[in-house]
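Side project, low priority. Logging it here so it doesn't get lost.
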Amino acid sequence: MSSYSTFEYDKEFITPKITWGVQHLILITVGIFAIQLILDPVLAALLPAYTQPSTTPGELLAHWFGFQPGNFLRGHIWKPFTYMFLHGGMMHLFFNMLWLYIFGPHVERTLGTRQFYRFYIFCGALGVMANYLVLINGIEPSVIGASGAAVGVLVASAMIDPDRQLFMIGLPFPINVRALVFFVVFLNVITAFASNTNTSVATHFGGMGAAFLYMHFRPQWTRWNRARKENALQKPKSKSKSKSKSKKLKDTIGEQVDNILRFKDDEFKE
C-alpha cells in the first residue's frame, strides 16, 4: 500500500522531463535575449551617437521586432511572430520560460512536437491582436515577451487534464490546473485596473482565448484533415480504375471491329 501511494505521489507532483519542442523554444528565446544584452554595448562602441536605453535591453531589436498595432497595419507583418521571442528583462524572461517549462511538456506530449510549435506560435500571434481592442486615447502599446503564448500553454494544459495537481511556491497545499487558470485570470483583472502597470493584459487574455479556440476545435480539424488526406490517397486509385475500365471498353470495341473486318475479308475471298 505504501509503495502504491508513493507511485501516485510521484505521478502527480513531480514535473515530467522536458520535451524537445519546449527545450528548443526555451533555448531560442534565451539565445535571443543574450543578443539583446550584447547588442546595446556593441552599438554604443561602434556608434558614438547611440545611447544605451535604461529600460529594455536591445531597444533596437524591440523597435524592429516588437509588436506595435499601428506598425503592423503599415505592413510590418512579421511582428506578431517575432515579438514573443524578445523580453524586457531577466525576470520577464524567467517567469515566461518557467510557465513554458512546467506546462509545455504536458501539452507537447498530447499534440506532438510539430503541432505544439504551431500551437505556441498561434497563441502568441493571435493573442497579441487583442491589443486592438484596448487602444484608448490614441495610446499605442509596444509589446514584447512570450506571455501570451505561455498562458496559452497553461490553458491548453488545463483543458487536457484540469484536475492535474501541482505545488505552487508560497502555497502549503496543492492546486489543480483549472483553479490556477482562474487565479491567473483574477490577477490579470486586478492588473488591468492598476494605473502604473506595463503588463499587456490584453495579450494575456488574447493568448488564453487563442488556446481555448485551438484546443476546442482541434478534434474537428484533425478529423477533417484526416478525411482530406484519405480522399487524396483514394483519388489516384479511382482514376486508375476508370482508366482500366475505359481501356477494357476500347479493347472490346476493337475486337468487334476486327471481327467485322475479318468477316468481310473472308466473304470477299469466297
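Brief comment: Residues 1-15, 263-270 have pLDDT under 50 and may be disordered.
Revisit when time allows.
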